[in-house]
């Protein structure tokens, strides 16, 4: 439903301005994957289907965007690791498994992990970069060294 509303809003602006929706998209760097569903998404080399953990929302999105989504909120159908091992983002830093930390104290004791509270989903431990991308209206994250939370 939310995706349909988003597409309707995107389609309305260029049409109102006298331009076609797809012509407008082709000239911008918009995420074209959102236009695909199911098999079309799976067959596109730069797209992947992601499933929201809250509700039953599935959305096709660009792989480069999908790899940045918080894993506690989204599960994506990557055909294999999204990057070859030698091209992993931040490959110079060790991969910190924050998801395995099930309580606030073990999360806080792990470098680069942040405990985030939410009324919408269970509280969980996130990697620092994931926690910074969470919507502050939904999550209160306890970043080390900061007086206020996100």
Give a concise summary:
The chain is of the alpha+beta class and 150 residues long. It has six helices and six strands; from the N terminus they run αααββαβαββαβ.
Please give the structural blueprint.
Blueprint lengths: L1 H15 L4 H7 L10 H6 L3 E6 L5 E5 H4 L7 E3 L27 H5 L4 E6 L5 E4 H6 L5 E4 L8
Antiparallel strand pairs: 1-2, 1-3, 4-5, 4-6
Shape: elongated
Q: Span from first to last CA?
A: 28 Å
- Percentage of residues assigned to helices: 25-40%
> Unreliable runs, pLDDT <50, ≥5 residues?
1-29, 84-94
- Please count the helical segments: 6
Largest sheet features: 3 strands, antiparallel
Keywords: Signal
Region (Disordered): 78-101
Signal peptide: 1-17
Give an overview of the whole structure.
By secondary structure, this protein is of the alpha+beta class. The chain folds into 2 domains: 31-82; 94-150, no CATH class. The chain has helices spanning 2-16, 21-27, 38-43, 63-66, 104-108, 128-133; strands at residues 47-52, 58-62, 74-76, 113-118, 124-127, 139-142. A 3-stranded antiparallel beta sheet has the order 2-1-3. Strands 5-4-6 form a 3-stranded antiparallel beta sheet. The two termini are 28 Å apart. Keywords: Signal.
